[in-house]
Amino acid sequence: MSGILRARRKRRRTLAIAVAGLCLLGLLGSAAAVLRDEPAEASPVADTFVAPVFLREVSSPSGEPLKRPLGLASDGDRLYVTDALAGAVFVFGMDGMYLRTIGEGRLQVPAYADCDRRTREVFVTDRGLGLLLVFEYDGSFVETLAVTQGRDEEKEELDPFAPLAVEVAEDRSLLVSDVSEEHRILYMRRSGEVLDTFGEADSADPESGLNYPNAVKRVGGSTWVADSNNRRFVEYDRQGAISRVLRMDKVMRGFDILPSFDGASLQIVAADVLSHRIVTVDEEGEQLGTVGEPGGGDGEFAFPNDVIVENGIMYVADTGNARVQMWEWAPDPEESIADILLSGSFGLWPILFLSPIALLPLVRPIEVTVSPETLVTLAEASKDRVWRRVRLVTLVGQSAEEAAAVGIPVLPFGGPSPDAEAFAEELMLDSSKATILALALQSRVLLTEDEDLAVVARAKDVEVVEPEWFVDEFTRAAEESAEESAAEPAEDRAAESAADEDWAEEPAEELADEPAATEDRAEEPGDSP
Length: 529
Fold this sequence. Notes:
single chain, alpha+beta, 11 helices, elongated, disordered N terminus
């Protein structure tokens, strides 16, 4: 028993030293940021163009391609996709997992949408019905908004009315592009009362008129409009007067506006529908870079119609390919780890304490969940190698026995789990995947080659790592391990072995609370020249 206690004390000392070191490095990182006196980066788009990398695509509830996705919207937790051919708005988590359908049987040709995050409402324009409809986040229908104009005593419904783009402003007012007769922007109350209009052609300046405004965004006191068929972006001031025009040689549809590195200027990420790319321009209209190529493969587009950026992920309505694509801004591979860790005003804390994998080399043994099929890959990859600093947890089964036979330290698990049963029902997973997910919530690290399981795990804030990297990081060649073992005192080896046996008897920690799901926002296209 003294050997076990001695081993545990050794582990506690190791962990205490590691935590103290992390605290010191975090303080150094914060101090370095203060000394540099640089503002924190407010978005994944810096002062120079950094291209995101393709992550995956989002499918319909049946797992088949969407029919005709046009617009995207976000409420911060979920992604809303308007599908013009399906006549509905599909709701996904920000990880791309399907959650529910809105407006089926009521919508005809949904175009664009936006969310009011305070009232938890979704506003959807319908090109077929010529209406602006309101739904609750859970899909419940609220009302068809009666758009009215005139003085209080003379109010009448706006006729004709052909809504296209919609934006919920910070003051809960609505900005709606109307493409019925003379194309314009309506500035409205939530009640539907039109307070002002702008964008109509001025008789003294015919070019001031809009031609199919496909997207509208409010940033501070300015309103930005994608004036698609005039091939330009137009900025309006609070009074509705044009304050800036960015001439483009492309037909832009949906767009999002991001702050640049200095936080003072803006960058526009837009869907270039006819060039089949995503284009980034600065606030002077200078093109900074493009994303994607024409085609139907991963990272390729066909008539993209809308784009939004949420939490470092870019979502693109790839209309011609009947799908939504997800792109992620990744760290520059040429940037050193030291540069990454010491960047930002928070120093090391976000990286070291939000990523469980960063702590793996510091403590032994580390518990890691592995899906059964991945054990076969690990067994093959780790032949003639010795595992170190890690213990794997998986389901009872033949794959676990095979893995243990080639030297992988596996703790089989096969008991009932209420959490697994809940996951199976909530996420429609089979029992084995649901149990693996429940185990992964304890270890916070998952090894799997199952992409569907990986997506679910990431949504639950579990770190998912590649098996090949894991083998490289946590194994050593047999000869190297033998030399190291010969140099280690026999007493310490005995204590560590006893501690490992004792570890299997320790009770598992309670599962972490399930984090809330997430969603996004939607939109639709107009005619092109």
